[in-house]
Write a structure and sequence with these properties.
30% strand; single chain
Length: 323
């Protein structure tokens, strides 16, 4: 349980807020049980399901008297989630937000207070909890525009909550630039995001028979489906670190959205590389780009017969590995 959830629990335990049936956006395991949980990140969704929670990747409608929201470190995602939460509340309903000070919760609290007004707040566990009542005010237009797919750089459709949601990631661009144009058979994009790499691959390799786009973020799958109108493409909301890939592949491309962390914490990326090794046929090829400082060579060596660097621009390194 994160510090933000602990602070949220504290607000109810102290009597500052009255418990009642609620929705819980960006939900995680906690003492709250009388909630309809929304969690679009597959690992957390699976954790909640295993614990017996009522959880869906997206709550579409409602008229709740109480809503709970865990804030993230991404400003636009928070704006979008607050606007969506507002639409799920009944008139006079209460929205409670909790987030870490390190992720900018105090600044967001001020912005929300200015836009919608606050009823109260408390500080606990280096977090901010604040709450407000749905009245005659509405979230700013920009916040509401962020709640659904919108056009971003290059005319792509995307939304906050997806890796590099509003622009083409430099690593993905490097990978697309150096991919061969003769990929064939059954291909996969591990960590597909909003579909940039997969569409580049489909455009350059005519002999591809099928491509599976796989991501642990449900919003990414929604965006990828909207961006790729190709009958060869199929879309899969999966956590590849604990769920098997849908097929065995001739080639896999991957820009895991885990390389923004510190080099000492590459575990998630390592798990995806290992999953790629398991999902390739013998002789299959894995193309990956990652921050050049991350220590991925040992995991490539352990899971592939050989690997080499195809491109290196002093920030990202593109590797090819053969199963």
């Amino acid at each position: 349980m994160s510090q933000a959830t602990r602070a949220l629990v504290h607000a109810f335990e102290t009597g500052a807020l009255k418990p009642q049936r609620a929705f819980f956006l960006r939900a995680e395991l906690s003492p709250f049980r009388d909630v309809d949980a929304e969690q679009s990140l597959r690992p957390e969704y699976l954790r909640l399901k295993k614990a017996g929670w009522s959880v869906v990747p997206r709550i579409e409608s409602g008229a709740y008297r109480l809503g709970q929201l865990l804030l993230t470190k991404h400003k636009e995602e928070n704006f979008a989630n607050i606007a969506r939460a507002w639409s799920l509340l009944a008139e006079g309903g209460t929205l409670v937000c909790s987030g870490s000070n390190d992720d900018g919760a105090a600044s967001l609290e001020k912005q929300v207070g200015k836009a919608l007004g606050l009823d109260g707040q408390l500080s606990k566990f280096h977090c901010r909890v604040f709450w407000l009542t749905r009245g005659h005010k509405s979230p700013p237009d920009y916040w509401r525009e962020l709640t659904s797919l919108r056009r971003v750089e290059g005319g792509w459709l995307s939304q906050p909550g997806i890796f590099s949601w509003d622009s083409i990631d430099d690593g993905s661009a490097l990978l697309a630039q150096h991919l061969p144009g003769d990929l064939s058979g059954h291909v996969a994009d591990f960590g597909c995001g909003w579909g940039y790499l997969a569409r580049e691959v489909l455009g350059s390799s005519a002999r591809i028979g099928k491509i599976d786009l796989i991501d642990a973020e449900h919003r990414a799958i929604e965006a990828a489906r909207a961006n790729i109108a190709d009958t060869r493409a199929s879309f899969h909301w999966l956590d590849l670190t604990q769920e098997a890939a849908p097929a065995t592949y001739d080639a896999i491309v991957c820009n895991p959205p885990f390389h923004s962390g510190r080099a000492a914490e590459p575990g998630l990326g390592q798990n995806v590389i290992a999953a790629a090794g398991r999902a390739l046929r013998p002789g299959g090829v894995f193309y990956m780009v990652a921050n050049r400082g991350l220590p991925y060579e040992p995991i490539l060596k352990a899971n592939f017969a050989s690997f080499e660097t195809l491109a290196d621009n002093n920030k990202f390194r593109m590797s090819r590995a053969i199963r």
